[in-house]
Please model this.
Amino acid sequence: MALLRKKSQSDSDRGKTEGRKFIDLNNFRFPEEKQGVTTTLKVAEIYRFEDVRRITDHVYGGNIVLLDCSNVSNDEILMRRVIEEVKAIGRDVNGDVAGLGKNLIAITPKGIVIDRTRIRGSY
Model:
């Protein structure tokens, strides 16, 4: 069948890919990449209530924290305590707190708002 016929490379095309040099982007840094970066996204996991205190420094420092509560989500009382503490942290820094699903909580510092509307794709 003519439609399923494979394209064959000519001898001159084969030599072009052998001499090509690829750049490892993990080693490549842009000069302006670190300039002006004041807010970073930190991902934290908690295993017990005391772990919530460890994330407060990051939020007070102006970073966004995505808190994974999946390890404590089975204990309803502990989850309530964690949520109340996270809300208090959000109030202290005049930031925003939002639940993302059942096990994730986003905490932002002052000046960064979490938009609650979802962006949905068309199916």
Q: What stands out?
A: The two ends are 34 Å apart (CA to CA). The mean pLDDT is 83. The helical segments are 11-18, 51-60, 76-92. The chain has three helices and four strands.
